[in-house]
Amino acid sequence: MWSFSNPVNIQFGEGVLSRLPELLDGQNYALLTYDEPWFSALADQVISQCGVPVAVLNQIVPNPDIKDLLPLCQQLSEMPVQPDVLVAIGGGSVIDTAKVVAAAGEDFDRVYQLLTQGKGREELVCTPIIAVPTTSGTGSEVTCWATVWDSAHERKYSLADPRLYPQVALCDPSLTHELPEFLTICTGLDALSHALESIWNKNNNPVSSTYAVDAARIILNVLPELAADLNNAALRSRMMEAALKAGLAFSNTKTSIAHNISYEVTLRRGTPHGIACSFTLPYVMRSVSGENSVCDQALKAIFGEDLAAGSDYLENWLKDLGIKVQPEDYQYDPADWQRLLTSALAGERGKNFIGQGEALLTSYAV
Q1: Cβ partners under 8 Å of residue 128, min gap 6
Q2: For a surface tag, which of 137, 153, 210, 298 has the fewest beta carbons within 10 Å of its beta carbon?
Q3: Is 292 strand, coil or helix?
Q4: CB under 8 Å to 199, separation ≥6 — which residues?
Q5: What span, in angstroms and rounded, lies between the C-alpha atoms of 169 and 25?
């Protein structure tokens, strides 16, 4: 028995952002985005088309941290009119931040208590969200959770509630054309990880697998070409399509062991998320091959019948993109790496992994 559900109204195509005024239909809205020239110009365009928002929350930084989220909610609390809807224009950090603000309203303590103590879910506000992704990677526009970091205490939290699915995702590939090569690669690797992680996952189902296989095939073919031809509109569109499909896949499965490993690598080593969650993929694939027939079937649809050769292909594919794949490249010695793997296998996302922990530990044995 299995089920698949995703309530987000997805609208895809170049210029689809122009539908925003119709979607808002005169509602009071708050605009969340980055305080950077390109995003400021985009915000001005939205304001000219949709009217003045009740607030512009643009103090958003990558990897939203508890210390940065509190001031945003405080700013919102000072507004004489509260928004009926939040418009989030940016990458995953902006959309995740919008989910936190949507849940908290003007009082961040609502979310803080839930994250740290597991209390007060019934107090969440859950203001509707219109998500406008400007990267092709996180899939946050079609998921109901947000990653919240607490760097001061080296913790990572996941805010999750079905009410936090965006109402609408406006996926406009033209908004990704400004992404530089490094961010294009990093976000694309995040999407690849979402696809593969939803396959070697205890929550995998036929629909999520279909999305994941298609997403992974596109990314493996398109990302190297796009990295060499950043102005190619057709490739940008294909990458956004792939990231969206990967998002739909893991919106029902959540991620797995590679992501659980990545959290410490990002917190302690400062490694960008897309790299931190993808450099282990070949080793995870080697460890899980042969463990589950359904997983093997999906992986063979991506990499061919010889999964050992497929793992080698994936490793070389990452290296060709400039990604280092050994633990020592991220300042882990063998003992510390084995400690991290053991801890990750026991983590919330690690428990989604269908493979055997011993096989993963052995795959990295030095």
Answers
A1: 84, 85, 86, 102, 166, 167
A2: 153
A3: coil
A4: 209, 212, 213, 216, 295, 298, 299
A5: 16
Read off the pLDDT of residues 99-120 as tens digits, 9 standing for 90 and up.
Answer: 999 999 989 999 999 999 999 9
| Residue in the structure block whose two tokens are 């493979």 | 355
Which among 221, 260, 250 has a CA at the least distance from the CA of 348?
260
* Residue-range definition of the domain harbouring residue 163: 9-175
Q: What is the DSSP string of 203-255?
A: T--HHHHHHHHHHHHHHHHHHHHHHH-TT-HHHHHHHHHHHHHHHHHHHHH--
Tokens representing residue 302 in the block:
């991506």
* 153 and 242 part of one domain: no
In this structure, are 166 and 32 located in the same domain? yes
**Residues 251 and 312 occupy one common structural domain:** yes
Domain annotation covers residue 212: yes
Measured CA to CA, the distance from residue 240 to residue 134 in angstroms comes to 9
Q: Of 175, 200, 234, which one is at a domain's C-terminal end?
A: 175
- pLDDT > 80? residue 366: no
∠ CA 98-99-104, nearest 5°, is 100
Length, in residues, of the chain:
366
Q: Report the number of secondary-structure helices (H) and strands (E) in the chain.
A: 15, 8
Q: Give the pairing of strands 145-150 and 155-160.
A: antiparallel
Could you give the CA distance from residue 102 to residue 115 in angstroms, rounded to a whole number? Answer: 15
pLDDT digits (tens, 9 = 90+) for 263-317: 999 999 999 999 999 999 999 999 999 999 999 999 999 999 999 999 999 999 9
